[in-house]
Design goal:
By secondary structure, this protein is an alpha/beta fold. It is built from seven helices and seven strands.
């Protein structure tokens, strides 16, 4: 660890209301205005919603991402939006976990899922990447799949032959955007339960 890393760690843990970071909450997406409002950025949108509720701004560039520190139900958490582009999300997540010496069991990842209708959530304690490239990257680089995740429904392709990349990089319509906002609020409630060890309660209340 360099002297700069040591200083950064001391600075992080001495901020107002600070303390040792216990959880990493990562929302997946792609950086850049052209991706705002796209299905693939449901994770980014949810992290932004959580930050707004907590009164923090995700504007510190660290760990190949944008970050903010916040206290959620008494737990110090790092909010993280990887800016690596989706397929390399694991690079950002692993850097944060290693820096704070946090086990992957204290990681919560929020991301889009085309198998769920817009507005629906599914919370899982572990599992495969299910074909999602951001999750694939995280699982490959951590060597773990036993971390919690919140899947945000974005809807399936209009027909089987429709290009998947075009679909997930497309933007929500007005009705589905409203459903996403409601789902993001529900996902934030799930995060607040999960950091308290109440994952079962979150699953019972919000799983689709």
């Amino acid at each position: 660890m360099s002297i700069f890393d040591i200083f950064d760690r001391i600075s992080s843990n001495s901020q107002s209301g600070g303390g040792k970071i216990e959880y990493v909450i990562a929302g997946l997406g792609n950086p850049g205005m052209e991706y705002d409002g796209t299905r693939h950025n449901a994770g980014f949108f949810t992290i932004d919603t959580l930050a707004e509720q907590l009164g923090v701004q995700i504007n510190r560039l660290r760990f190949k991402g944008k970050t903010a520190e916040a206290t959620i139900e008494g737990k110090r958490c790092l909010l993280l939006k990887p800016t690596t582009y989706m397929n390399l999300s694991g690079e950002s997540v692993v850097q944060a976990l290693e820096f704070y010496k946090i086990d992957a069991s204290k990681l919560i990842v929020i991301y889009d899922d085309i198998s769920l209708e817009p507005g629906k959530l599914r919370i899982r304690r572990k599992g495969s990447h299910g074909g999602h490239n951001g999750m694939r990257s995280i699982i490959d680089l951590t060597g773990r799949d036993d971390f919690s995740r919140i899947k945000m429904g974005v809807g399936k392709k209009p027909h089987p032959d429709y290009d998947l990349a075009k679909w997930v990089l497309g933007k929500f319509g007005k009705e589905d955007s409203a459903k996403l906002r409601e789902a993001a609020d529900n996902a934030c409630e799930c995060v607040k339960l999960m950091v308290q060890g109440k994952t079962d309660e979150a699953m019972n209340k919000h799983n689709s």
